[in-house]
Recover the amino acids of this structure.
């Protein structure tokens, strides 16, 4: 694909514009759910976003972490709905940004239609999403998922590719920086929640399905700004590998001494906050994903001259992995939460068996957001009468994708992942790509026992990682 390599770093006017946009969004989001106050904040943000949609786009990855705390646009007094109208803030920002970018974007992207042909898997992914909507029994929930998880992430991906090509790697760094800032805030809220200080109510009102702190299996699990501890673990597993790669390269790439600390401390802080949030989620799947992400970072960031030959390295990695897993298994027996042979692990297996039975009866899929509707018909009799009856997805990425989007969806995901890893391997010499590879690997491993894509923040993270593999980035040799 053609890459424009014009480098346009953020200028002082850009910074002031970003600050003004942020102020407008804070007023619109937190001041009131009533229309006049909301309109005041949007009156600041919207003109600036229409003028500079490239800068407004940075607030999409920043605010997507708030999807469990939607923005009230109209209160009940307007008679539209008794409960008012609430939308995720990132959706509002994305639609305004799209309005500002649409005319020029469509014109220029059409001029690059030969490049677009190489993005055929995106078209396949979109068609699979439409298929998931068409076959769904409950069209209302399927339409919401089509909007939140198929159409809007694709719009974000297209806009990011469009602007990154024209403004260069400095723009990409801006987008990633805003995304990591959202992750750092989310991790900080989770850590403080675990320590007894709950800031979540000060940020927004949740529409989640659990309390902020859940004692289970001898530990206290927290949700942060999310609806469930598993959502916190899933989100943090995407953030920290990218921040860690940036921190590593910032520390080693340049003069030593205190300069290293000054270069690396922001991304190191993000890494620690996100790892802290992951830790207090007490999600075993997140821990497995973190181990996979750490191993990927170690392999990609250590200079090749320091590694043993591949014929020796692979057996050493296998033996080391078995030793670590064995040690963790022995330690976990003393804490029920980490006992891999415990009750919840058995429940996962029962859920997979039910999902396979569902897939056997519906080989072309059941549609977007339909698992929870059909699961009571397939649930293991031993789980009837428990909270597991409310399970909304099969806790396995292969089963989840195939059931929601059919075989076409599974093919589209595999195709996109092949493109991602091929491009990352071909152009490895940047910390963003190294971090993206580690984050995607961690997400895939975690997705074997939980969700991989079908939450708004996970969907946007997936397309952000894919974009990082496709756009031009400044090279920096790993490991110094």
């Amino acid at each position: 694909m053609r890459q424009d390599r014009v480098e346009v770093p953020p200028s002082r006017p850009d910074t002031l514009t970003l600050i003004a946009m942020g102020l407008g969004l804070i007023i619109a989001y937190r001041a009131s759910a009533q229309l006049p106050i909301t309109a005041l904040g949007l009156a600041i943000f919207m003109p600036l976003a229409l003028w500079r949609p490239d800068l407004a786009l940075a607030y999409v990855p920043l605010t997507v972490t708030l999807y469990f705390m939607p923005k009230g646009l109209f209160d009940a007094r307007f008679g539209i709905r008794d409960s008012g109208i609430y939308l995720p803030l990132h959706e509002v920002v994305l639609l305004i940004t799209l309005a500002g970018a649409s005319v020029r974007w469509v014109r220029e992207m059409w001029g690059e239609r030969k490049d677009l042909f190489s993005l055929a898997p995106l078209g396949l992914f979109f068609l699979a999403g439409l298929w998931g909507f068409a076959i769904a029994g409950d069209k209302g929930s399927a339409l919401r998922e089509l909007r939140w998880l198929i159409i809007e992430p694709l719009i974000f991906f297209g806009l990011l590719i469009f602007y990154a090509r024209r403004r260069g790697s400095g723009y990409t760094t801006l987008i990633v920086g805003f995304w990591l800032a959202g992750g750092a805030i989310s991790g900080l809220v989770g850590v403080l929640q675990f320590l007894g200080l709950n800031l979540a109510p000060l940020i927004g009102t949740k529409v989640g399905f659990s309390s902020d702190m859940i004692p289970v299996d001898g530990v206290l699990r927290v949700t942060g700004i999310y609806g469930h501890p598993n959502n916190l673990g899933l989100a943090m597993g995407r953030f920290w590998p990218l921040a860690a790669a940036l921190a590593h390269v910032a520390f080693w790439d340049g003069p030593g001494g205190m300069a290293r600390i000054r270069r690396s401390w922001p991304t190191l802080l993000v890494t620690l906050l996100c790892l802290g949030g992951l830790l207090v989620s007490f999600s075993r799947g997140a821990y497995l994903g973190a181990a996979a992400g750490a191993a990927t970072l170690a392999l990609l960031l250590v200079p090749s001259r320091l590694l043993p030959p591949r014929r020796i390295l692979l057996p050493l990695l296998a033996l080391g992995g078995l030793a670590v897993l064995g040690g963790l298994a022995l330690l976990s027996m003393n804490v029920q939460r980490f006992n891999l042979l415990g009750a919840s692990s058995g429940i996962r297996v029962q859920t997979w068996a039910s999902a396979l039975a569902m897939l056997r009866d519906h080989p072309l899929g059941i549609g977007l957001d339909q698992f929870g509707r059909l699961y009571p018909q397939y649930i293991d009799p031993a789980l009837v009468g428990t909270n597991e009856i409310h399970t909304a997805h099969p806790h396995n990425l292969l089963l989840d994708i195939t059931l929601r989007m059919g075989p076409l969806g599974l093919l589209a995901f595999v195709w996109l992942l092949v493109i991602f890893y091929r491009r990352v391997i071909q152009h490895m010499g940047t910390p963003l790509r190294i971090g993206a590879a580690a984050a995607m690997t961690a997400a895939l491993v975690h997705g074997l026992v939980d969700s991989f894509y079908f939450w708004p923040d996970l969907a946007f993270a997936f397309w952000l990682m894919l974009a990082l593999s496709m756009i031009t980035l400044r090279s920096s040799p790993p490991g110094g």
Summary: Confidence is low (pLDDT under 50) at residues 1-7, 113-117, 330-336, 475-480.
